[in-house]
Amino acid sequence: MSPIASVGSLKPGEVNAEQAERARRRITDYLAAHPDGPNEVSVLVEGDPDDALVVPRPVVEMIAHVLGQLAAGRGVSVIPSHAELTTQQAADMLNVSRPFLIGLLESGEIPYRTVGRHRRITFEALMEFKRHDDLKRRAAADELADLSQELGLY
Fold first, then answer.
1. What is the pLDDT of residue 1?
2. Which alpha helices (H) appear in 76-154, and where do they start and end?
């Protein structure tokens, strides 16, 4: 497993928001106009029309999403799904305390491995836990909404 890493990070404001929005719009317009287009997209390099980059369509879609976040003034990090996080990094991503996260690890709710005395959580395992936790929260909120309607409490 690779150590903790983000392949790339851009802080808010590092990219011109107007340029990011213009590029996002051009990409999404192209993708919308060619919904059944090839699985690869050729991107012409400005200044050299004979030199085109061939990019897989799913990557182009992800780039459009990244550009949208940058255009909105938000920072973006790209993290490989197999990257390993420290307990503090994982806690920060879930917006919980480190001791609370350790309780989740020790109860078996999130798989982890130990490296020496340190726990490591894969980004993929953390996101799987977050997806399941979000589903449980939504179900509980729906149940409360149904109950309040039944009782006439709006």
1. 46
2. 87-94, 98-106, 123-150
